[in-house]
Write a structure and sequence with these properties.
This protein has 104 residues and is of the alpha+beta class. It is 61% helix and 13% strand. It contains 5 helices and 3 strands; from the N terminus they run ααβααββα. A 3-stranded antiparallel beta sheet has the order 1-3-2. Helix 1 packs antiparallel against helix 4 and helix 2 packs across helix 4.
C-alpha cells in the first residue's frame, strides 16, 4: 500500500460513501450493494480498491465478506492535511502580523 493508493481510493465519491457507511459498523457486501444503483460486482471492485489501499478490512465468514472501516488507513491523509494546515497557519500569522504592523 502506498500513499498514492489511499488518495486514489478516496478520490472516488462512491468509495467515500462506502467508507461513510462503514463508520457505523461492519457491513456485508450485499448490505453495501443495496445502497447503490450499480451491480454487486461493481461494488465489489470499489471494495477491493478500498481494501488494497488498507482503508477497509475484510473478514471472510463462509461465503460472506464482512467489511470494516480501518481508520489507520487514513493516516497519510491526516498527515498531508496537517502539513497544509500548518502551512496556512503560518501564512495567516504572517498576514496578520503584516496587517497589524502596517498601522504604525
Amino acid at each position: 500500500m502506498s500513499d498514492t493508493d489511499v488518495f486514489r481510493a478516496i478520490a472516488d465519491p462512491t468509495r467515500r460513501q462506502i467508507m461513510s457507511m462503514l463508520v457505523d459498523g461492519e457491513l456485508r457486501v450485499s448490505d453495501i450493494a443495496s445502497q447503490f444503483e450499480m451491480s454487486r460486482p461493481a461494488v465489489s471492485k470499489h471494495l477491493a480498491q478500498l481494501e488494497s489501499a488498507d482503508l477497509i478490512m475484510v473478514e471472510r465468514q463462509g461465503r460472506e465478506a464482512i467489511n470494516r472501516l480501518n481508520p489507520e488507513g487514513l493516516k497519510p491523509v491526516a498527515e498531508w492535511l496537517t502539513f497544509f494546515s500548518q502551512f496556512w497557519d503560518d501564512k495567516l500569522a504572517k498576514l496578520k502580523q503584516a496587517v497589524e504592523g502596517s498601522d504604525d
